[in-house]
# Entry
Amino acid sequence: MISKTVKNKLRAILGKENLLDEKEDLICYSYDATTFQFKPELVIFPKTPEQISEILKIANQEKIPVVPRGGGTGLSGGSIPILGGMALVLTRMNKILEIDQENLTALVEPGVITEEFKIIVEKLGLFYPPDPASMKMSTLGGNAAECAGGPHCLKYGVTRDYVLGLEVVLPTGEIIKIGSKVIKNVTGYDLTRLIIGSEGTLGVITKIILKLIPLPENFKTAIASFFTMEDAAKCVSKIIQARILPSTLEFMDHFSIKAVEEYSHLGLPQEAHALLLIEVDGEDTATKIQLNKIKEICKEENVIEFKSASTFEEREKIWEARRAVSPALGKISPLRLNEDVVVPRNKLTELIKETQSISKQYNLEIANFGHAGDGNLHLNILLKSRTPQVMKNAEEALNALYLKVIQMQGAISGEHGIGFLKSKYLSYALKEEQILLMKKIKTIFDPNNILNPGKIFVD
Amino acid sequence: MISKTVKNKLRAILGKENLLDEKEDLICYSYDATTFQFKPELVIFPKTPEQISEILKIANQEKIPVVPRGGGTGLSGGSIPILGGMALVLTRMNKILEIDQENLTALVEPGVITEEFKIIVEKLGLFYPPDPASMKMSTLGGNAAECAGGPHCLKYGVTRDYVLGLEVVLPTGEIIKIGSKVIKNVTGYDLTRLIIGSEGTLGVITKIILKLIPLPENFKTAIASFFTMEDAAKCVSKIIQARILPSTLEFMDHFSIKAVEEYSHLGLPQEAHALLLIEVDGEDTATKIQLNKIKEICKEENVIEFKSASTFEEREKIWEARRAVSPALGKISPLRLNEDVVVPRNKLTELIKETQSISKQYNLEIANFGHAGDGNLHLNILLKSRTPQVMKNAEEALNALYLKVIQMQGAISGEHGIGFLKSKYLSYALKEEQILLMKKIKTIFDPNNILNPGKIFVD
# Structure
């Protein structure tokens, strides 16, 4: 329980309009994009690193859990206050402080919305590639804390590859600046990348120096449907072997195609068992040549239909199919588990076959879609109910899935992080020595375990 | 002193042909590419991670320093055994274990020579961009340990951006595998990037999973000379503002131009005070368009001469000028200090002016060259002698330089690392809290401080 005295101290630091403790407010900040819910005791909206520093000093002294939160769009429960304490919401620190067009960098506060930032830099002819599906609501701070991905990562890399430096408030209250406005920097250990993907457990990110690149001149988008997953997978493989690295290479299985068609009537071929959404970008002529080559490859692999977009509207329609997957599956089953495993790209077909056999074995409906180009599978388990038997089956299915993924040299999370949903599976992926090293690092940064406790590690 | 008993144990592990302790052998392994020299007591050439594990367990028990070493091309003294002990040389672990053309990855041992690897993957239409100047002799393991850079980093990023996973032997003997064969992986803290750039102080790298990309279809190379550094800098700025990201954007100052011309008579314009070497790569048409645009920009900024290469021989001649800088300066003064500071790209002119004033103030000859595109300046201080007064002046000059660089939001090392040459300046760049965090991380990995002791930190 956070005492009245502490609340008053916090109110004095933040101003009363930046602290909420009414039940209905607490409920709003007890969720993320998973279906789990744990109420914080207090919701606070700091506006400066100095305020966060003061708050963390108090929390550290009083041993109060502090859970940083951006847009609340996470899919591993990372920003849910599972042990109560304070939800530290960073959405009011949402200024773009600088876009430096000469050095191709930006300095932002953590609460800036990802898509808003992308649109602003694009107007300047610049490009910030990371594009998590939640980018309309997710924040750049949350993206950094989770090392977010997205369809563009195949060609352009993940959030980590675009963070040059950070300002971070440590759980003990110190404000540190790590990295800098330069691409090359080898000054001691890489604390910047240690914070990236640490899921808000090592420090609160209060400023981010981002790397930008020139906006590609043009892009070409196409959608290709196939009778079998194998045909689609062969295309992916041949595209890469033709030394083409598409900016996007997404796929959907039969279940997802049907679901999308029922949901939004886009005219997707119902006989298709696999669908690829392909985008190439770069110089105009180059993209034309690449798209033609891709079309040829698809034909060689018995494509049912290959449609390329020639207008912005056509492109939007293609993307609509991909974007509709998640809501369409959500309509079929609101109780779905959204997975995020990743395997080397050429093992994706094998993994999908495995999910089909898991589906039968545990009597669960599974939809497969995701980033074919980088082997990142967002399979969804569609639960019909939450009865103990169904939940037990789902847990065993996930268990089987993770073991298979590890065996295939993959990872149990590609984009969503470990949070608390996957903490008990961390030992599948990592040896005891590695987990021990990580826990010791956590202790160095956060000796009293106040910052986002209960995440990543089982304790 | 390493006892006879210990030596015998090591010999039993390694085989006698993989252990050297004759004085003349020890001398060979007492250098790197700096001018400093410290003899190890023993030179060992392990061939497996298991051997390294056994050796480190012994070293850990006996508190014997172990200094990992690749090609010995480092420029910060990182692989010099300043406290004696064993030089652990990884050059006999030099196999390319796999090049996976479907997943665009490679699995290599640490002793593979950088350039040899680059050539082999290029024959397969693949590209490993990092290209440190020493790549003919440097090893991929050393590159990973130092997070090596090179001219291509402007467009393609540094070694860190191409390492997906590592096998590492910890100083306490455990063998861990971190990261994996996938681009996206958010499974706990990013130990992979913590090891990258840790200069052999946290673990011995025994395998590396590298990311490869498709080889660009074509490239265009040009050399442009200018009457003033300001003109050249304006060109750099305008090229970036035209949203062109060259694959290389190198420069030399008047002193370097003169030195190269005296050394290799390439016909460089002697009246030039700045020279840019520019390369663009990508699809054929795109590179032509970009090079034309760059030529226009150079004309607008009063270029003296703009020469583009139309044959492989012409390209080689252009690169010869850049590659000759270091040997040409070495001929003028074998006692030179090769610097590696970095500032945001648009502050490079200001930094160069600063070096000119430092040159006057401390009566030292300074040559400036380096990577204009990413603000990484390899200024060389050419010492006429090693008298106490000259050395004192050089030290004060470096001191002034580092302070200026920090003030300009730069870093005291872009590519070479801290090693022991810059350890006393680490506190210029980082706050005490950060250094303390790093030291605590070191202690977690290496409680007895046996692995490359005396590097990065002063203690």
Q: What stands out?
A: Chain A is about 35% helix and 20% strand. Chain A has a mean pLDDT of 95. Chain A touches chain B through 88 residues (CB under 8 Å). The CA atoms of residues 47 and 453 of chain A lie 23 Å apart.
